[in-house]
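[Q] Does anyone have a clean structure-token version of this?
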Amino acid sequence: MQPWSGKAGEPFRSFRNRLRLNLGSKTDKSGSSVTNYLDGDDMGGPNPTAPAVPAGAQSGELSRLRRGRANIAYSTILTAIAAPDIQLNLMNTYSATQAYDMWQHLQTMYDTPLDVSQSDDYITQMRQLSILHSTSASTRTPYTSTQTSSFSSTANYTSLTG
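[A] Here you go.
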């Protein structure tokens, strides 16, 4: 799996998707995958919709399997991070049994909203707007003193420019 550079936004989302695909195929006897563990949806997970670990003789085995999913998640995430400062911070803050919390922390910190100003659609729209503006500017009638302007007073201009 390609390591994550430690950059927020799209690089993290790409890493998250690769990690989920990689760990989704790793299931154990309980039927839960490591991706289910990271989502909190595995047996005994923190989500309200996660199946509970049944009481009785099987509970010890199922708890052991959950710890195994946590260990796999923890080691896979840490080895897939190419930024040593982030790795060290995570290792100093979280243990293997806290891999779910570590993953939630990473998502909170690095899954930042898309920057619309950097998207291809936005750039295309801005170019089209610029072309329309320059085309329409050349066809406008010149300003005359009989026309009114919202920038006719210095106070209006100053309030808009700060």
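[Q] Thanks! Anything notable?
[A] DSSP finds seven helices and no strands in the chain.
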